[in-house]
Amino acid sequence: MCLAWLALSAPAAAEDAITLDWNAPRGCPTKPHVLAETYRLLAGRPSGPRQLRGEAHITRSEEGWSIVLETRVEGATGRRELRHAPSCSEIAEFASLELALAYDPMAVLEANTEAQRTMAEEQAAAASTSAEQARRARMLSALEAARAARTTARANPPPPTTAPSTPDPEPVDDDARFLGGAVAVTVGGDLGARPELGLGFGAMGALRLAWFRIELEGAYWLPQSSYLGAEPGPGGRFDFVSGALLAGPWWRWGEIFAAGPRAGFELGWMRARGLEVDRPEDATLVWMAARLGGRASVTLLDPLAFQVAVGVAIPFDRPRWVLDGLGDLGRPSVVTGRADAGLSLQF
User: What is the DSSP string of 238-283?
Assistant: First the structure.
């Protein structure tokens, strides 16, 4: 009974010598495939007390396949990356090789000695190399580079120190870079600042610090005319220019969608001039308002994105536009509606 228990427990311990958290899109080689290739490079499953833990994150973009592989063995951590690979199969080969090297580089070198001799003979006899030979050549080059680096490290050991070692910093994902931003051109609408629905053209610049974003925007609102009665008749022409400073959290969901609320302050200039009256006069207003709303962005083709924003402006002052002796053209609303949409370049 005891011997049977030992025979059953030994394979389980061997399988646990190397564990891997394999986060890969559908269609990539599986985790068992990667571990099987790792054990092949080590000439079989290891049975010693040494333990290795690996975590791999595989992504795909227009440039190709990428992997970030982190390992921890006997308290030491490592990080390896491969960018823009042509296929996920090559990513899996890279992961298997790096896991084997992290666990026992000398075992990998010994297991591939016969393969080196065989490949050299095939290369001397053949006019061209096959895809399998090219793959083995890349693997062997990586092995030689690893052996040279380890030999150099043994020949030049670091001086002893009593200071505690500083842990490696946590990896930063490309999508969570600390600094970023965008510039955009927009077409917008305003309802409530002037007597009629207004149309305007604007520009926006944004600066992102981690998950917090600051926006500076400006808009030129097309002139509009309002009349006391049926056109033509006495009325007024309204001109409006505005700018705003807004800020708020900015969150991303995957590679395409991003959104967040924002709040801030708007400052502008508004002018009204009488129409169809005996003595046309101008009246100006320094427009000041609080702004609340939100903005969303959808990446069309990086770095080009489509964005849309909705919100309100709450003016601090609401003077009436009055034609002396004729009538009242109204005043800004207590709350005015705002919306805009446009294209942006992200960086």
Answer: EEEEEEEEEEEE-EEETTTEEEEEEEEEEEEEEEEEEESSSS--EE
